[in-house]
Design a protein that fits this description.
By secondary structure, the chain is of the alpha/beta class. It folds into three domains: 246 residues, P-loop containing nucleotide triphosphate hydrolases (Rossmann fold, 3-Layer(aba) Sandwich); 74 residues; 142 residues, P-loop containing nucleotide triphosphate hydrolases (Rossmann fold, 3-Layer(aba) Sandwich), CATH 3.40.50. It is built from 13 helices and 14 strands. It has a six-stranded mixed β-sheet, with helices on both faces. The longest helix is centred in the middle third of the chain and has 43 residues. It is flat and about 100 Å long. About 2% of the residues have low confidence.
Length: 500
């Protein structure tokens, strides 16, 4: 169905990944996991043909296997409407019908070759599939919370979450036999997520899914392919995410034990070698007693000295082999972000007061009559179906858009930190070092030290934000909030794009 053969990709002197080899068979739903920036999205792009590897090949069986790809960075045609996009993804029924009619007229002409009949059969099959897809469209759009939208609504007028769900609907309606999905659960509420899980469980084809959602991978994955950031290659584990985690932990424990055993063995051999060298020095000159002039005794000690030196050399050869050819690597450190807020200014007890607040856009009211108080130390979850106005409410509180009525009042000494879903506040031309320095005025040393807590190390700090993965952008946004000492955080889907 899909096979990756020894794929490698580099953008710098260090490889992003190398020697990537795995297979996805019909009926398998494989989760692709790894830290942010390890190359998951790049690997999917290579598998779709949108990007070329430095080496290796991608094989589909059959070669024309229909595939559906959901990307994180969505691209729609400027003129797309809801209806035109869905029609294109289903299969263009009017165009296929016109082609069928034209072929039907050509087939009956004298001298028509068999290739025309073959083309007719192929287009007819596509037309039947498009009609079947069109029959499934209403249910798919309803399940993804899009059925209430007008068909002639421009895609450009949709929210980011609606665009993601529309793209997902298009992929599912394109009748793929191979699915490549990059973070498909982003922007889905619980009902939509349950529907997608059921859809995938019933899907007879092959699926490769990048997701940060453990519960989702536990319910749908039949295997996990892990991109290891230390080896920069992949390994496949059978079972769902929990099974993968158990295997990974056991594997790491075995590696630690093997490493410790080898280090103990090396230490013992080094001790023995030092002891032998000491004996060799004792025997050097062929005598233990400097006043002993007996020739037999001198010869005896000389031979013993040579034997001892040879034993020491043999031990040192074993040590060298253990430290080189048979060396067991020390298990690498598992990196995690360190969210150390340090000293932040205290606000008043009342942080936010919503007073009969109405939010939305001119001519489009989303929420009204909101009255709520949030006090210092509270952690409030804002929940509701997609499109209910959660993001609009946060943007209103952050002062990015005006309220339609009422007020959102901040308390004394409140410093708001707003993290947008798509991190559009980041300047794509600035790298993490420049981004944080522009917000804090810190020195390069101070900034690099702080960024390391958010897993930006070495030359990572010089990568422009526009070239960072979506997960890396999320980490950079969080770093900015912490560095600025914000004491009231407004986080819009903060775990979208962050690795597990």
């Amino acid at each position: 169905m899909l096979k990756a053969n020894n794929l490698s990709k580099s953008y710098t002197l260090e490889p992003l990944f190398h020697s990537v080899t795995f297979t996805v068979l019909p009926g398998e739903r494989v989760g692709l996991v790894g830290p942010n920036g390890s190359g998951k999205t790049t690997l999917l792009r290579i598998l779709t043909g949108e990007e070329q590897p430095d080496s290796g090949t991608v094989q589909r069986t059959p070669a024309n296997l229909p595939a559906g790809y959901l990307a994180q960075g969505l691209a729609f045609a400027p003129e797309d409407t809801l209806a035109s996009f869905i029609a294109r993804m289903e299969g263009d029924i009017p165009a296929l019908s016109a082609r069928i009619e034209a072929l039907a007229g050509e087939i009956v002409q004298p001298g028509a070759g068999p290739h025309l009949q073959q083309a007719y059969d192929r287009i007819l099959e596509q037309l039947q599939q498009a009609a079947e897809n069109a029959g499934r469209a209403p249910g798919t759009l309803a399940a993804l919370g899009l059925s209430h939208l007008q068909p002639d609504l421009p895609v450009s007028a949709l929210s980011g979450g609606q665009k993601t769900r529309l793209a997902l609907a298009g992929v599912l309606l394109s009748a793929p036999q191979l699915l490549l999905l990059d973070e498909p659960t982003n922007h889905l509420d619980l009902d939509m997520l349950a529907w997608l899980e059921d859809w995938l469980l019933a899907f007879p084809g092959a699926a490769l899914v990048v997701s940060h959602d453990r519960a989702f991978l536990d319910r749908v994955a039949t295997a996990i392919v892990d991109i290891d950031p230390l080896t920069r290659t992949t390994k496949r584990y059978e079972g769902n995410y929990s099974a993968y985690l158990e295997q990974k932990i056991a594997e790491r424990e075995r590696q630690w034990q093997a490493y410790k055993d080898q280090q103990d063995q090396i230490a013992r051999l080094q001790g023995s070698a030092r002891h032998m060298r000491g004996l060799a020095k004792f025997h050097k000159g062929g005598k233990a007693d400097p006043e002993n002039t007996d020739k037999f005794s001198v010869g005896f000690f000389a031979n013993r000295g040579k034997e001892t030196i040879q034993k020491a050399k043999n031990l040192e050869k074993r040590i060298d082999r253990l430290m080189n050819e048979d060396h067991i690597d020390k298990p690498g450190r598992t990196w995690q972000m360190k969210m150390e807020f340090g000293e932040i200014a205290s606000s008043g007890r009342l942080v936010l007061a919503l007073e009969n607040l109405s939010v939305g856009y001119p001519g489009h009211l989303l929420l009204s009559g909101l009255n709520q108080a949030i006090r210092f130390g509270a952690r409030v979850a804002l929940m509701g179906p997609n499109g209910a106005g959660k993001t609009t409410l946060l943007r209103t509180i952050a002062g990015l858009i005006p309220p339609l009525g009422g007020a959102a009042r901040l308390g004394a000494n409140v410093k708001v930190g707003y993290m947008a879903q798509e991190h559009e506040h980041l300047d794509r031309n600035l790298n993490p070092l420049e981004t944080l320095q522009s917000q804090t005025g810190w020195t390069e040393t101070e900034t690099r030290s702080f960024l390391s807590k958010f897993l930006f190390k070495g030359d990572d700090v010089f990568t422009p934000a526009g070239s960072l993965s979506y997960g890396e952008r999320a980490r950079l946004s969080l770093a900015g909030l912490v560095a600025r000492g914000c004491n009231f955080l407004l986080l819009d889907e903060p775990i979208n794009h962050l690795d597990i």
